[in-house]
């Protein structure tokens, strides 16, 4: 039995759905009977079907925790050609924040809560407990891998795994339409509770990185502004540390990119509503 199969069996025993990945770190293609989902798909896909194919078909949906499937003859050929083990994070109740370069890692260290970290070839995987919608390119060098997605298994990593924070969920959020026109004024900060952060420098670093994210947006500025506001509020919006000055800095950065004050106010109000503030 190959090392990859042994790794897959250990993960499956821990209730992590696994699948073999071929060269290029991608899933194997569907068999002829399943090509273009002609079979109707697999039962564990988003749209349930009637596929009974025993092979490694339908990409992430092929992932399984069944050891009999993993060692079956129908998977043997795939394992012989495989270069690594993949897994379905959402199927294990996990979310992987895939940080693809040094800049993305720097951003995460200043903006996201610590969790289990797995080094990758070019960056890091930050793994959180909890599943969410997957989406690539939520910001430069950052992908979200969870439901209907797969990630490479690169080892157990280090650090204590923590719960999926609102700051990560906010990265995939779409801005809703405002219910009514908002007043032309910088709104008051959201919270007045006890601060849970180690120091005010943590807040200052987060605001500075939020300003940078808005300033560096080369496209989809509307969406970037909303997601940035949502991320800042998800981390800092429920304590008294967020001041009018901080909010004003975010608005100024957005307006420097061509956003109107009305849009800034609407985006801030929509972000607060989305977080139940």
Protein described:
By secondary structure, the chain is an alpha+beta fold. It has nine helices and ten strands. It has helices at residues 3-13, 67-70, 73-81, 102-111, 166-169, 200-215, 221-236, 244-256, 261-274; strands spanning 18-22, 26-27, 84-87, 94-99, 116-119, 124-129, 135-139, 142-145, 151-152, 162-163. The termini are far apart.
* Terminal Cα span: 54 Å
Estimated helix fraction: 25-40%
* Binned strand content: 5-15%
How would you characterize the largest beta sheet? Answer: 6 strands, mixed
Q: Nearest-angstrom radius of gyration? A: 22 Å
Principal-axes geometry comes out as elongated
Count of individual helical segments: 9
Average predicted confidence as pLDDT:
85
Secondary-structure class: alpha+beta
Low-pLDDT regions: none
Kindly state the number of beta strands: 10
Keywords, separated by commas or semicolons:
277 residues, alpha+beta, six-stranded mixed β-sheet, four-stranded antiparallel β-sheet, 9 helices, 35% helix, 14% strand, elongated
Secondary-structure topology with pairs:
Blueprint: H1 3-13, E1 18-22, E2 26-27, H2 67-70, H3 73-81, E3 84-87, E4 94-99, H4 102-111, E5 116-119, E6 124-129, E7 135-139, E8 142-145, E9 151-152, E10 162-163, H5 166-169, H6 200-215, H7 221-236, H8 244-256, H9 261-274
Parallel strand pairs: 6-10
Antiparallel strand pairs: 1-2, 1-3, 3-9, 4-6, 4-8, 5-6, 7-8
Helix pairs in contact: 6-7, 6-8, 7-9
């Amino acid at each position: 039995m190959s090392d990859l199969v042994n790794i897959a069996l250990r993960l499956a025993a821990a209730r992590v759905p696994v699948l073999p990945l071929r060269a290029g770190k991608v899933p194997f293609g569907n068999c002829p009977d399943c090509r273009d989902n002609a079979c109707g798909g697999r039962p564990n896909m988003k749209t349930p079907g009637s596929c009974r194919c025993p092979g490694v078909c339908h990409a992430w949906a092929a992932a399984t925790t069944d050891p009999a499937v993993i060692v079956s003859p129908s998977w043997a050929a795939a394992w012989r050609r495989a270069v690594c083990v993949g897994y379905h994070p959402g199927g294990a109740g996990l979310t992987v924040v895939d940080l693809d370069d040094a800049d993305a890692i720097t951003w995460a260290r200043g903006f996201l809560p610590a969790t289990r970290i797995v080094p990758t070839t070019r960056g890091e995987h930050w793994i959180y407990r909890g599943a969410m919608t997957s989406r690539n390119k939520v910001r430069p060098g950052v992908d979200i891998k969870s439901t209907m997605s797969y990630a490479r298994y690169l080892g157990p990593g280090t650090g204590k795994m923590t719960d999926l924070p609102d700051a990560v969920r906010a990265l995939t959020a779409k801005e809703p339409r405002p219910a009514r026109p908002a007043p032309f004024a910088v709104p008051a900060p959201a919270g007045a509770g006890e601060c849970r952060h180690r120091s005010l420098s943590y807040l200052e670093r987060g605001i500075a990185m939020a300003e940078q994210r808005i300033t560096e947006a080369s496209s989809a500025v509307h969406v970037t502004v909303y997601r940035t506001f949502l991320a800042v509020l998800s981390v800092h919006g429920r304590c008294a540390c967020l001041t009018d000055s901080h909010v004003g800095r975010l608005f100024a950065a957005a307006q420097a990119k061509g956003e109107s004050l009305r849009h800034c106010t609407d985006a801030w109000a929509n972000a607060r509503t989305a977080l139940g503030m």
